Amino acid sequence: MTDTNTRDLVNRYVALWNEPDAKVRRRTIEELWAEGGAHVLQPPEEMRKAAAGLGFASTTLEAHGYDQLEVRVAHSYEEFVAPGEFVFRPGDNAARLHNVVKFTWEMIPVGGDEVVGGGLDVLILDDDDHITTDYMFPGL
C-alpha cells in the first residue's frame, strides 16, 4: 500500500463515521473490515475509574463482526453527527508500517474549525488491506 492508498483508507474510514445513509455505512464497513474484524475502544477515563472502583483492573469496549461494527458506527453517528452539531475529520499524519496504520482524527463543529474532540486510531490490516483490528484511543 502506498502513502496515497494509506491516506485513502484513512479518509474512507473517517468518512464512514459521518455517513448518514445506513446502507452506505454497512457497505463501507464490509469494504473496510475483514469478516470478523474488531473495533476495540479505550473507554473514557471516567469509565475506567468507575471500573477500577468496582475492582476491575482494566476495561475495553469491543465490537466484533459486521453486525456489531454497524451498531457501533451507527451509535456514534447518531450521538455526534446526526444532530447536526459535529463532524469528524482525519488528521494529516497517517502512516503505515507493514500491516499497521496509525492516524489521528478530530471532531469539529459543523462549519467550524475548532477541535472539540479527537483521538488516535491504530489499524491492523490483513494481506488484502482489510481491517482485522481497529484500536481506538479517544481523547488524545
From TrEMBL:
Protein known as: SnoaL-like domain-containing protein
